Amino acid sequence: MTDGDDLSATPRLATKAMLKHDRVRDVEMLLLPERVVLLNMSSAAILGLCDGNRTVRQLVDRLEEEFDATDLTDDVMSFLRDARGRGWVVVS
């Protein structure tokens, strides 16, 4: 995603970020220094796959299979651009 549209890029969570499930609220959270972001199901699913090993294309394929959906590429790419801009994700 060096140009913003690279399906072969490998996103991973930023070193400062950690995913956690809040059992009390039954919600996924992204923990950052001095900040907690409550995630919806699709955001949590995308971030949960950002391990630095899978390409964006592999993330999209997995999400389309998991959610029985098609054409998620634009949505995933848009989310990853936003997450990268917020410092949640690092892309190589």
TrEMBL record:
GO terms (BP aspect): pyrroloquinoline quinone biosynthetic process
Coiled-coil regions listed: none
GO function term, MF aspect, one: quinone binding
Annotated Pfam families: PqqD (PF05402)
InterPro entries: PQQD, PqqD_bac, PqqD_sf
Annotated metabolic or biological route of this protein: Cofactor biosynthesis; pyrroloquinoline quinone biosynthesis
Keywords recorded for this protein, A-Z: PQQ biosynthesis
Assembly: Monomer. Interacts with PqqE.
Record's protein name: Pyrroloquinoline quinone biosynthesis protein D
Organism: Pseudonocardia sediminis
